[in-house]
Specification:
Length: 117
């Protein structure tokens, strides 16, 4: 059974870069047809899909991430990383990494990120 675990700073200052890593166990990030994504939920709001990196290494981003960041991966460590630049208070949220194929999702537990000076 695949397990995903997010890690990164819980507090980031405005204008800094947020980097969150998702460590994957029980499955390879290069396994065919799976997509590895980042999703967040700001206080009082719904889920927002930020982007994904496919098993092939190709990436797809939301407009938010396309303008301010990227997703990379390290296949030797079986993990992938979200990079979000120039953060503001609007980026305060619980960030989740997830694996999906078709409509089937496996989620990490989520990590709270607060942007504040």
């Amino acid at each position: 059974q695949v397990q995903l675990q997010e890690s990164g700073p819980g507090l980031v200052k405005p204008s800094q870069t947020l980097s969150l890593t998702c460590a994957v166990s029980g499955g390879s990030i290069t396994s065919n047809y799976y997509f590895w994504s980042w999703i967040r939920q700001a206080p009082g709001k719904g889920l927002e899909w930020l982007g994904a990196i496919a098993y092939s290494g190709s990436t797809t981003y939301s407009p938010t991430l396309k303008s301010r960041g990227s997703i990379s991966r390290d296949t030797t460590k079986n993990q992938f990383t979200l990079h979000l630049n120039s953060v503001t208070s609007e980026d305060t949220a619980v960030y989740y990494c997830a694996r999906y194929v078709s409509t089937s999702f496996d989620w990490g537990q989520g990590t709270q990120v607060t942007v504040s000076s």
